[in-house]
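Dear support,

We are seeing what looks like truncated structure output for some complexes. This example has two components. We would appreciate it if you could run it in full and send us the complete token output so we can diff it against ours.
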Amino acid sequence: MQQKQPLHGEFVLKSEDEKAEKQEIKHPHQSASSPRKQHNTAHFFSQIVEHPDNIRFATQEKDEHVYLVLRGHMIANLPWIGLSLIFILTPLVGYPILASLFPFFSLHISTQIIILLSYYIMVFGYIFVNFTLWYFHTAIVTNKKVIDIDIHGILSKDIVEAQLSSILDVGYTQVGVFQSLLNYGDITLQTETRLQNLEMLKAPNPSKVVRMISTILEKEKNDESA
Amino acid sequence: MNPRDIIDGGILFFSNQDLIVRVIVLIFLTMYTLFAFILVSQVKTLTNTYHQAGFSSMLQIVSLVHAFAVVGLIIITIITM
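Here is the complete output from our reference environment:
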């Protein structure tokens, strides 16, 4: 008589659930569902970094851990990168045209070099400013709060902090073909005070980020209630 | 000084294309220096707000090098006048 074998799928699922339960009991802060996982190193080009070990911010408290750091999608840099390439190539195209248009305007070679160097220093400044604006335009989620650093210009910045407990809702919007194709969008964190909604514009993979933030919020609320 | 000498000096200055262009470049570079040093201070402020070890300090160095390169270019422009 053939003995009835248990279904393989059922067995695997059960064993994983048991493992997870055991891990949850032993290390409540290191389970798979917990926001506290292994640390990652954030690079200058990183857009989403979970548990970065090399990031700190001005208002960070001693017992405050960074869970998530978010920057705008790389595609947001495309306009200024394109413009920079045009600026870099302009002298190569423009010089022969200018020389043919104004033959009477002849400058010494040293003056020409100085003009060219000045021009390229300014182009470098333009690239550097735009990169800096993208690099510092971040959102940080910790175990206590969410910090939204908005850099609008070199002399204009807007930093908003909201306690995790004050966040009511997390959502995102994706508008247009590019945002849908390249999977980026605007994430909104609704807070108790209507005037202080946090926005993370052009965030990469917004559905994943919203899920991650929701998990963090849920975990922290459970910790607080426990 | 004879007014004639002043007029001659003016004509000489405006007949020298290199000199005129260099003066214009100097004016631009002087204004740009101000911007470059504002950039240095802003990068420093932003680094204090958000610090990413290993890279934020590199940004500060790049901004400083950029500012001193502008100052260096001003000096070269004046010396080679």
